[in-house]
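ERR on first pass: missing label on line 2. Operator R.T. fixed the label and resubmitted. Corrected input:
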Amino acid sequence: MRSARCAACYNSIGWIGLIANAVLMLLKGFVGLVAGSQALVADAMYSAKDVVTSFLVIIGLKVSSKPLDREHPYGHGKVEFILSLLISVIFLAVTVYLMLHAVATLLDDSPHRAPHLIALWTALLSIAVNVSLYFFSRCVVVEVNSPMVRTLAKHHHADASASALVALGIIGAHYLSMPWIDTVVALLETLHLMYLGTDVFIDAYRGLMDKSVNERKRRRITRLVDNVDGIDSVQDLRARHIGQEIWVDMTVRVSPQATVDEAYSLASRVQEALAKKVAHLGSAQVRFESSATAQEPTDGDATLTLQPE
Amino acid sequence: MQHKCAQKSLQNKILFCEKPWQIPAVALTALVVFTFLWAFYLLDETMEHEFDEFSVSDFFHPTAGSATLQDIMNTVPPAVTGISGGNVNSPALGSGVIVSSSGYVITALHLIDNLDTILAYVDTPSGHRAIEAQVVKSVPEHDLVMLKLVTTDHFMYLRLADTNGLQPGEPVYAIGQGIGSGPIVKAGAVLETNLSLAVGVQNLSHVIRTDAVYNWAQTGGALVNANGELAGVNMAIVGVSGLLEGYALPADVLAAHFADVINFKPAPGASPNPRGTRSPGTQGDPPLRGSAAWWNNARNQLAPAPAVPPMGLNTVMNNPGPAGIPDTGARTGAAHPLGTRIGGYRIEDIIGLALLALTAGVVGGMMTMGGGVLQVVGMMVLFGYGMYLIRPVAYLTNIVVYGAAALRNKESGLLHWPGIRGALPWAVVGVVAGYFLGNMLEDRSIGYILGVFALAMGLKVGYEMMAEAGLGVAAVAHGATTAGVKRDELDELLDPEERPPAHLIASDLVKHSALGVPVGLISGMLGISGGVAGVPIQHYVNGVALRNAIANASVLVFCASLSGAVIAFSHGVSAGIIDWQAPVTLAIVMAPGAYVGGLAGAKLTAVLDQRVLRIFYVLIMLGVAGRMLLGAP
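pass 2 clean. output:
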């Protein structure tokens, strides 16, 4: 961080990106319709995607930070998944509609018409805006090193590339007398968007289904716990995403000679280790059992959950 | 791409905060705005093109190069309407010309002057139909009025010819609706151009004389040139000799008056100067009115005027410049037949409208009321717009002005939410009722009601002044502002901030509806802010402290205006009463003025002498009342 001003940039960059994308979305959608450029309308969906993601992040932060209450003893993290699911379905529906429209246009016999040149201008403008925002966010990434802003920069970069493709398509449509190429670009972009949208959808679906965190993270957690002195092995590990947090339930084996007090403090140390090393840890429940007699478990931790075995 | 970012992050060449990033940012924003405007322009173009086939001129194929009466008869009549009042069976009083595919009709003002309802008889593919019409804009100086057929159908229309270079001797054809259902047509020629006539108490300038007009029924009808374009609107006038003489108001005059309502396109392929010659000085500038006339007068007073003509602009006509001096460049090109314009408006008119809004805003900001009345009356009287057009404009302006006021009031914690929440639904009900009620009433009746309001406000402030002079104490509430900024300290002493409703007379339902409905009704019907009623009701009946009452009213008016705008645009467009473009443009011109005026007014109250202010206010309001109640609008 070079100066205090970097903090100002860091705080405002999310909002700047959100507003810029919202404006670009409206502009590209509107111009795309007026100019008759399907590719530009599809391109507007890229900006729409960014707007939606930003909103989800904001809502997610707001809701996830809401404290647990009596009716929601496990927190509000899953609201984010439900929203993601809903939005990704809407997003996919619009994208599929655009794609079908593009296909229908391509299959149609009637002659294609090259879009009005305002579409080219708008695509170039979109490139300019996204490139500026990319460099801006990169400046923040370098100075602040925030992974969130890094993702943002990536999105701006991708959007600029998408707009560049649209611009190329319109140039081709206009100056190389290939009016159909605009529709082809639209088709390509909608396919890519569907891929992206499906990703969000699958993520949300998995989140709702309490799918386990990926194998890499599982191994990392296992290794962390194994390294805690006094822990013999990790018996059972369940970890899932709730919102942006990771919730962990695990059973560790401790030496049969250990007293309950010792075992309890071991479990606490495991919790501390996890809290220190695992980013976005929401909750960690650690139970312990004896390495010798797994049949006679002793419940550690302040949990009332029954052991699954 | 992830890796790319990570690698690049090693060095940072562009440090944004150390470079002048503001310039590119502003430039990009400007470009985005520009692109939006461009797209709107294109959208407008394409929408026009969709209905281009409705232009009569496109169907006009003169045989063997020159038009015959028969060619005209075969093409033009669908764009000419009969005009009558009352019920369907009453006879046609005259004719009208359709000048836009969405059903805008220009006709003579005196035809419809005393009509309660206006009916236009139009030849449509489904036969001869009587369609109700509403006044959009009237122009008394030229005895012209623009009507809108209340329908979403599309019509054949006439393009405007460029009459800048119109010469005596050119063939023209006058068309009107006859006594029966058929058209009457007569061929003739332009006899004289750019005449000034005194008709009754009125002076008409820039008039064409033609022998093609021979019958009363042709009045308001079309004068068509040999290309099948509209050269003018017919006027049959009894001359000095007692005989009927034919005149017409040329297309340039029409364009000058009505280009703010609809977007006239120059006829395709029409040469702006068919004869290739132009005698400078014989054509006056397009006539000016409203604020434009005011500006012109001001200019004439600065420069010594050679003669005093009956109307401001005939100076040019009476003193033709030396031959050979070319006309000013602005009006010679086909693309700019109407002079420099922004969105159909003369720059003078834009300034005039903005000034009107500013004045209204200042008055409203200073005295908390009367601004809306001033704006609506000003648009009616000075600019000749009909209530159908004024109402949506007023809603939009009020949204901006009262939205801002409500926000400020919210921040300063003056709002009393329980009261607002209860009254809100009623305000929305009121505004819907007010909108439809206002549509049923004639503009003249609305004018009277506005006059009564102005009178009441003037008298109230006048009475307060008297009372104060008598008591020597500022006992009466005043000086707070709709903009919610300043207020007399004395009032604060007299009115505690939060007073529990003392005179709680009836149930909440009655109380809320008694507050909400009048606010909505007035906002909806008259287009002025319902605070006129809302503040006193809250203050005197419900016992709310004055500044809280004003703050609450600002929220109510904002919501009422918002729903009013939604209703006015959805109903107006679907029923074909208005197009959305004209009111939106007007609102864009006026809203900033009203907003700034409100702020300035609020500041001025604190600075200026209250007595002088109020004397001025009373004078203005009584003047408005006199104009609306006594003067023939």
